[in-house]
Amino acid sequence: xxxxxxxxxxxxxxxxxxxxxxxxxxxxxxxxxxxxxxxxxxxxxxxxxxxxxxxxxxxxxxxxxxxxxxxxxxxxxxxxxxxxxxxxxxxxxxxxxxxxxxxxxxxxxxxxxxxxxxxxxxxxxxxxxxxxxxxxxxxxxxxxxxxxxxxxxxxxxxxxxxxxxxxxxxxxxxxxxxxxxxxxxxxxxxxxxxxxxxxxxxxxxxxxxxxxxxxxxxxxxxxxxxxxxxxxxxxxxxxxxxxxxxxxxxxxxxxxxxxxxxxxxxxxxxxxxxxxxxxxxxxxxxxxxxxxxxxxxxxxxxxxxxxxxxxxxxxxxxxxxxxxxxxxxxxxxxxxxxxxxxxxxxxxxxxxxxxxxxxxxx
Length: 362
What we know:
By secondary structure, this protein is an alpha/beta fold. It has helices at residues 5-13, 94-114, 133-138, 192-200, 212-220, 222-225, 268-277, 317-324, 341-357, and strands at residues 36-37, 80-87, 119-126, 144-145, 148-149, 185-186, 240-246, 286-292, 330-334. Helix 2 (94-114) runs antiparallel to helix 4, helix 2 crosses helix 9 (341-357) and helix 7 (268-277) crosses helix 8. Residues 1-74 and 253-260 have low confidence and may be disordered.
């Protein structure tokens, strides 16, 4: 069962912040971090180097074997990457959103320093198009929303309430300061980390029916990427696509079954095929990352999702299978980790490898 609007409305009404302060499992070690590099047949492992200092200085250690030289200019290699972050906006995700914001600066720094990428798009979307619902609720009770006067909250647009549309404001009503009119960050953005942190704060008042896959496919779909549409220009034919799913539940869709649960529409294979089709059938042009519940895995970090404390997670075998379909280009980690820096450190080497092999169309 998911945490949806009813519980969050109670929290807003009594002005209590709902959060999930997770503590590491007793005796857990880096080797039990929950990061799962997809099996490549060569005993791939994740290095422990630098895990202790990944967040303190905002940097991630350079993954083993990366010397900063990048690939030789030529027929292969990518200088463009489109980063899509699909962030669960349900009631149990406050800590995870902050964890993502904390880990992002080191991740993007290493991408810029250790690969040949010079041109990127970065877009954050939520899982139910809640838009500025949080401020709509709070401004019905108070003169401000998270310290921002209600009369200064940006007016909600049609795109704000569209599933898969990139976010230009935080759920708390802050204009994130994305340069230009587009709904994603581009290279040269002033204070990149703060801008992304703002956009990634998608809030916790979203529906408990998290539609992570639907948000992902809509975000890169033809309809939202067409001329004059919400995400116009985000997805580029000559760029590597990196999709990151961050959720503590399995995929959902609106409407419930007899057990008051919402079955996931489609199949991992179908989601995979849909994504690959948007890259002209070239699965090598995609890297899939998943921070999801690991309850069903050996050495799990996540406990069962507790609807009272909002701790724990729901296992997500459907999302795990989806990411693993990308083979060497898929990495899965535990959403219950207290520090996402090691996960993103392992992801950088996967992204660089995919970049080295990338063949732009034409």
